[in-house]
Amino acid sequence: MKDCGKVLLKTAAALAILIVSVSCAATEMQAEPLRPPEEAIVLFDGTDFSHWLKEDGEPAEWKILGDAMEVVPGKGSIMTKQTFQDFQLHVEFNVPQAPSSAKEQKGGNSGVYLQRRYEIQILDSYGVEAENNDCGAIYRVKAPDKNMCKKPGQWQSYDIRFRAARFAKENGHPKKTEDARVTVLHNGVVIHSDEEIPNKTGAGQPEGAEAGAILLQDHGYKVRFRNVWIVPADDAH
Ligand code: MG
After folding, report:
1. Less Cβ around it within 10 Å: N or C end of the chain?
2. Which residues face 121 on adjacent strands?
3. How many angstroms does the Cα of residue 155 sit away from the middle of ligand 1?
4. Mean pLDDT over residues 139-160, rounded?
């Protein structure tokens, strides 16, 4: 029995060390933004809005705060000047703490639109049972497999692998032959695995064969973004 107790103690100590080291690594990962790979197009690094426009083509009017940009509610969504087909996208975001007077439970609404067509929702969904309009959802299409949301005020990340819908000409008109597909990691955990997106979501642009911009949504909340980069895929056509 004594020996057994010792072994248990040793195991507990080893486990404690493991837990401490794993959580330290996680904290470090959270503090340090993920560095873009060499082949990435850096869309925002805290410097300026040179890669971005408002939807009407005018210059973006969001704020830069340190290495982040912040939605200025009412100034409109912003989209990349460049358009993309298949890609890998990294976005970090931070939803604001709701004012204590707020009646609405879920604040921090924004979103990352892929090709301006398909929205990966951003919302303060911390601690809720995630539905198909919560943070990480393919908006109104599919809830995330897990709710990985952090508390408001903490930096979070999306890593999104996107394959555009495929189209072929039929009687001179483009006809969709394959749905768009998406894999999403939220804070490093897979929440959608190569999911089909059957159509544009909510306020997205209609589907089509042409490439589309990445759009960050102004939905009336001071959501922040940082460290936004994209790697277009080679087999886009
Ligand atoms: Mg949204």
Report:
1. N
2. 111
3. 17
4. 97
